[in-house]
Design goal:
191 residues; Ribosomal Protein L25, Chain P; alpha+beta; 4 helices; 17% helix; four-stranded mixed beta sheet; elongated; six-stranded mixed beta barrel; RNA Polymerase Alpha Subunit, Chain A, domain 2
Length: 191
């Protein structure tokens, strides 16, 4: 997985008034849920922009007032009207405890069904996986060259090394749909 460096400052005041003052100063309140204790800190909104607005999953190298740790972004809260980031939760990573993340799905190859006039459709842009963070790839690559017209790939057919996929096994990840032109061509060929 890709890494992202983030610097933070420990929060001493945790009340509503202090949190509002942090947000006015263009800082985002954050919490690192760790193995031994939780750390409340703030990070600047500009530093977080590349971490938040991307489909990629990053291992975050946190530096909170000199204390370094590896973490992953677990939850995000946005303001319902202005869409400003209100709060971020991070989860500290260890070599032994598995984490659950959503990885982006990428399709590769030209499907047989597309050559026959169908349209390739990616139904699930992300899959939820569980595993040790060192074994998690940047994305899940699925080869669709063998996918015929009207056929689909389900979650049960996708394998990602030693990782466990947590989505429903019968959920469709990608499929080749019949287009109107393909249906019309098939109907005239039958007559």
């Amino acid at each position: 997985m890709k890494t992202f460096d983030l610097n933070g400052t420990v929060r001493t005041d945790l009340g509503k008034k202090a949190t509002k003052a942090d947000r006015v100063a263009e800082n985002v309140p954050c919490v690192l849920y760790g193995v031994s204790d939780n750390v409340h800190f703030t990070a600047t909104k500009s530093d977080l922009r590349k971490l938040i607005y991307t489909p990629e999953v990053y291992v975050v190298n946190l530096n909170v007032d000199g204390k370094k740790s590896k973490a992953i972004m677990k939850a995000l809260q946005f303001h319902p009207v202005t869409d400003n980031v209100l709060h971020i939760d991070f989860l500290e990573l260890t070599e032994t405890k598995p984490v659950v993340v959503e990885l982006p799905v990428k399709l590769e190859g030209l499907a047989e069904g597309v050559k026959a006039g169908g349209k390739l459709s990616l139904e699930m842009r992300k899959l939820k996986v569980k595993g040790i963070y060192t074994q998690i790839p940047e994305n899940i690559v699925i080869n669709v060259t063998e996918l015929g017209l009207g056929k689909s790939i389900q979650v049960a057919k996708v394998s990602v090394g030693k990782l466990e996929i947590l989505n429903a096994k019968n959920a469709v990840v990608a499929q080749v749909k019949l287009t109107r032109a393909a249906r019309g061509a098939a109907a005239t060929a039958v007559k």
